[in-house]
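Following up on my earlier message about zinc ion. Here are the inputs again, as you asked, copied directly from the submission form:
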Amino acid sequence: MNEKLFPTEPTLIDCEICFKEIPDSVAVTEEGEDYVVHFCGLDCYVAWKEKNETKQGNDE
Ligand SMILES: [Zn+2]
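Thanks, got it. Here's what our run produced:
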């Protein structure tokens, strides 16, 4: 049951990469074990993903 009974002001969140404010209804969300991050679009999501994967330093 996720129906909205009445319009409410959208919750604005900051994009993790470019810090643009976006309504959470249109945000791209990535959830990890102990974090949740939001992006304004796939471009920022991909940018974060690449950065994040680099940081984790997988064995090669
Ligand atoms: Zn962004």
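One observation from looking it over: The domain at 12-56 is CATH 2.30.170 (Ribosomal Protein L24e; Chain: T;). Hope that helps, and feel free to reply on this thread.
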